[in-house]
Design brief:
- Helix content is 35%, strand content 30%.
- The chain has a single domain, classed as 3-Layer(aba) Sandwich (Rossmann fold), CATH 3.40.50.
- The two termini are 27 Å apart.
- The radius of gyration is 17 Å and the shape is globular.
- It is of the alpha/beta class and 178 residues long.
- The longest helix has 18 residues.
Length: 178
């Protein structure tokens, strides 16, 4: 197999350093036994439609890159529709295994920094994510985490960074298994 060029490794390290995500805290239901995951639904919860789309799409893309079938709540229902009913019906009809509820995400910046994210003064993004087993225990989370993204260049970079950490941590926790 051919090695990638040296400049590719330098660019990859630079991209990771530009937007670093740290898992601030994490909890996993010790009684949950994963039965294998095929279908995932990502539900964003943010104050603006665009921020919700950014996070839902980034998280969905992270799951898709790992080979999981994934959809987003925003693809199922527009913001002015009866979203909860449509999402509940989708979960049941499509036999969804995991529901990932992400957000809200808050942005902020140290004093004296210019606005960076969506018009808000921010260099850092914090947020929470809960994961539910749609078939066995849809009312109680089986995994929860709080994240903090440092030096996010924009909403999309922050969302991509958080999404990668969510998928990585779910695999590490033994929840995201085939």
């Amino acid at each position: 197999m051919k090695r990638p060029p040296r400049w590719a490794a330098i660019l990859a390290v630079g991209a990771l350093a530009a937007c670093e995500t740290a898992n601030v805290s994490q909890w996993r239901d010790p009684n949950y036994k994963s039965e294998g995951v095929h279908r995932v639904l990502v539900v964003g919860n943010d104050s603006t439609w665009q921020a919700r789309l950014n996070y839902e799409n980034a998280i969905a893309e992270a799951f898709a890159r790992k080979g999981f079938e994934v959809s987003t709540a925003s693809a199922i229902a527009a913001p002015d529709e009866a979203a909860k009913e449509k999402v509940d019906a989708y979960v049941k009809d499509k036999n969804v295994d995991l529901v990932v509820a992400a957000g809200p995400f808050y942005t902020y910046t140290p004093e004296g920094k210019p606005p960076l994210l969506g018009g808000y003064p921010a260099a850092y993004v914090t947020g929470d994510t809960k994961v539910y087993a749609a078939k066995s225990n849809p009312e109680s989370p089986i995994w929860m985490a709080s994240f903090k993204t440092y030096n996010a260049a924009d909403d999309e970079a922050a969302a991509t960074s958080v999404a990668a950490m969510i998928v990585y941590d779910l695999i590490k926790a033994g929840i995201l298994v085939r």
